[in-house]
Amino acid sequence: MAFNFSVFRVRALSAIVFAFIMISGLLWNEWSFFTLFLIISIGCLYEFQKLIRLITPAYKNISLLHHWGLLLLCAAIMMALAPATLMIQDVYLRFIGMRAVPVILVILLLGDVFTKKGSLQNWASSFMGLIYIPLGLSLFFQLKGLPVSNEYPQWGWMLPLIIIATVWINDTMAYLAGSFIGRTPLSSISPNKTWEGTIAGVILAVIMVTFLSGWVNKYYFPHLENTKQVFIICLTAAIAGNYGDLMESKLKRMAGVKDSGNMMPGHGGFLDRFDSILFAGPFVWLIVQFLY
């Protein structure tokens, strides 16, 4: 894959703007953090449904209630798993979400029964989307609130940043390295990716994020010794992120499309941008349970 400067420039500029939006959402407050991942979750599930309709013709027959209700169910799941501190009129957001999930689910099931458009295959596809997207992204709420130190109980806010930074740096470095030195195709699923670019992306991402995290700790959290843990987290995020990218590439290949959407110039849709994070988050969450 030869390096294309004009394509890289478009990708870089849109990535800078998007990174600013992401960082603002992550660091502003709890509500911006929740809203950011809620939007990502709904956007990814919407595009997932588009891909499934192309892959499985029977999914085109789902009712409008099933289609839009599934997105509402996605939002309810994110609310049910939201940070415990979020409240609306003295009512916890989690409480609202936990009550809304079964109600919406029953309405969707009854709707399919009365419209006679329901099928086990279609519901299996819908539930796969719910497990793949909102359940995976909601784990970022758990990571952000993780008290990893008695001295600095809020250090957990760095974990989502570490995951996202690792995944995005890995993606960028793999593209650059693959463009210049890539020779061996990584997989027939994604012919533009190479082993050389993938390995270089993982190594550079892990080194850069681990070094940056160490610098932050040195000046802001001098009593935290977590270089080894960060290294393991970065390595897990980079490797799992590559598998997430390959899974979404497989879905697009089966659907016969290049991009899942057109949300970002040079990057595609929500799934194209967050496919790696959808895998990296759950795997890092598992690793963190052992580390902390």
Write the topology of this structure.
Layout: H1 5-27, H2 30-55, H3 64-80, E1 87-88, E2 91-92, H4 93-115, H5 120-132, H6 134-144, H7 158-181, E3 185-187, E4 190-194, H8 195-220, H9 227-255, H10 270-291
Antiparallel strand pairs: 1-2, 3-4
Helix pairs in contact: 1-2, 2-3, 2-5, 2-6, 2-9, 3-4, 3-6, 6-10, 7-8, 7-9, 7-10, 8-9, 9-10
Task: Please give a quick description of this structure.
It contains ten helices and four strands. It has 292 residues and is mainly alpha-helical. A hairpin with a 2-residue loop joins strand 1 and strand 2 (91-92).
Features:
4 strands; mainly alpha; 4% strand; two-stranded antiparallel ribbon; 292 residues
Descriptive report:
With 292 residues, the protein is mostly helical. It has one domain. Helix content is 73%, strand content 4%. The strands form two sheets. The chain has a two-stranded antiparallel ribbon with strand order 1-2. The chain has a two-stranded antiparallel ribbon with strand order 3-4. The termini are far apart.
